[in-house]
Amino acid sequence: MVKQFRPPLGCYTLEFPAGLIDKGETAEVAALRELKEETGYKGEVVGVTPVTCLDPGLSNCTTQTVLVNINGDDMENIHPTQQLEFVDVILLPLDEFQTKIDDLLKKEKIMVDAKVYVFAMGMVQAFFKPRELPVLKQFFHKAVYLKQVATCYFQLFMSLISRCSDSVFSNCSFLI
């Protein structure tokens, strides 16, 4: 996670690493570059979503989500050096992701990116709620296995790449 000041909101935000897509770059290449610049970590792309809309009721902005694994044992990732001074790297444990975000919200004047908080809520549902619903018990064992695999790596789950062509963001491409 990264914490950075966002002038339009007038406060710090908690976000997934993101940034501009350079001309000729793919979503995957841009996500890895931005991850390295903002956090110092080197990652490996393990998934990319199709282009999806951000807020179709208000704009025509679209996004792609890039799933990246970060191997904490890689020499480059043991003591990562970020390239941006105005971004703070925040490491949160996966099994307490939403709880730790809620703690930050209580301690600091900070705004959480909606994509981050929805992801956190999804983590809670995926890993803890299946035990409570009989119809989902069959999937619980698979979820436990996936949780164990996920915790083997520090993961950056999303870098979000957006392209907007409405009047406000005419012909721009950027990560959110």
From TrEMBL:
Pfam families reported for this sequence: NUDIX (PF00293)
Signal peptide: none
Domain Nudix hydrolase residue range list: 1-118
GO biological process: nucleoside phosphate metabolic process; ribose phosphate metabolic process
One term under GO cellular component: nucleus
Record GO terms (molecular function): ADP-ribose diphosphatase activity
SUPFAM superfamilies linked to this entry: Nudix
UniProt entry keywords in alphabetical sequence: Hydrolase
UniProt-listed PROSITE patterns: NUDIX, NUDIX_BOX
Alphabetical list of InterPro entries matching this protein: Nudix_hydrolase, NUDIX_hydrolase-like_dom_sf, NUDIX_hydrolase_CS, NUDIX_hydrolase_dom
Family membership noted in the UniProt record: Belongs to the Nudix hydrolase family.
Protein name, UniProt field: ADP-sugar pyrophosphatase isoform X3
GN (gene name): nudt5
